[in-house]
Specification:
This protein has 500 residues and is an alpha/beta fold. It has helices at residues 10-22, 28-35, 39-47, 49-58, 72-87, 94-107, 117-127, 143-157, 182-185, 248-264, 298-301, 308-329, 340-352, 356-365, 384-390, 396-401, 414-423, 446-462, 467-497; strands at residues 165-174, 199-207, 216-220, 236-240, 269-273, 288-292. It starts with 9 loop residues before the first helix and ends with a helix. Keywords: DNA-binding, Nucleus.
Amino acid sequence: MSRKRKALSFKEKLDTLRKVDEDPKRKRTELAKELGLATSTLSPVVGQRETIMKNVLSFNVNAKQAKTAQHVKLEETLLTWFKEVTAAGVNIDGKVLREKADEFALALHIDEFQASGGWLQRFKTRHALVYKSVCGEVKKADEAVVSDWLEKLPSLIAEYEPRDVFNADEAGLFFNLQPEKSLCLKGEACRGGKKSKERITVLLCCNADISEKLKLTVVRKFQKPQCLKRESHLPCVYRANEKAWMTAALFEEFLSLLDRRMACKNRKILLFLDQCAAHPRQVTLQNVKLVLLPANATTHLQPLDAGIIKNVKHQFKSFLVRRLLAKIDRKDEGDLRISLLDAIHFIAMAWDRVTPTTVANCFGKCGFFGSPEEVPLEPEDPTIEDWEQLNVECTSDDFCTADDNLATCGVRTVEDIVEEATCGAADSSDDGDDIDVGDGEGPPPVAETQHPLDILRRAVAADEVSDDTCRRFYAFEQSLLGDLAKKKRQKDIRDFFIKK
């Protein structure tokens, strides 16, 4: 007798997908029989994996259908606000939520809406919201809290290998910081205004044995900056919003992609996060388990805060100083600033150069898999010789730490959330002072690529560089020219068959 088709909740669908991932080659009829489902129920679940994962992030996991609200935009913006304020440690009850819903309705010009008690209950059910009492954050790290956490940590990670224990965190960066402005900007939080276009927020994530350093996410103010318009392959994920902050929506996107990546590898991982406003308290993931670190103790307990981010920033600043000196040496009278595209490549290079020793020391310093050790800076700090050539009043340390207090997230106003939901981030860098203007020429022809390589080859031959550096340069040259030639052949073939 055939089984009747059964309506599954989102949670049951997630459990079903987990079973499928455990043995992808297993016959669906056998699995359906084990789960007590009809094959006609199982097949759509497997085929709608992407939709199910999205619905889990947006709706109650016990719901069986993704019932949308009458005013979708209103609920989206209200939910964004709710996640940000609760993540910041603010207690929210039904009365406040209804008042805020009316405020969003007014901002969105929805005249017929009224936040009644019935609407509130449906809103809470749709999004599985619960009110929780949140203790105010302690302003200074409590030694007892740190001690208790370090005692509890071994039991949290006991069932995981170092390769499956991750940490993610954000860092703010003035990517066009000029040395002479370091003292003016030191300690600047930059929560908006003109300075927001001079900064980026970078999301970093790696595991304890450094076998995986995930692709960086870079957030800036402009959605389509000129210098990125023709760049189809970036060494990062690029996103934008008005304040150049990490938001709950952007972080949930990151989590969803990470969860799918681990599901494809049939891996279960542990991800440690601090309690910033962008990090979710209620999210359903299949292969990623979130652990929130104690509030205001991340400098003691979070590996990325223990020295990894500092190393990345210092290496970035070293690249910046070298570029500045190169422009001065060739008497470049143009703008000494770099483009966002340059900054993205610099931060990606800095991230790539973080060593396994640094990562291991930082995880060990925070109680993970080893004994605490001091974390040395990588040898790519701006050198004394480089710094003295700049002849500026501030110190190298002032320059490297000027953006340490940059805000990377926060609770946005109703106006900010509504503007992003209705208009998105600014389309492009339309301020005349911005270096991105006119910097979107796209990649050079293959023939033009050879000339700078010839110059570099002569430099390698003329200067006293190591044999290892020579070998790496030759390998890079051959790899680059090979890839460009292959791309050109593919383009020529397409042009041949697509006649005008």
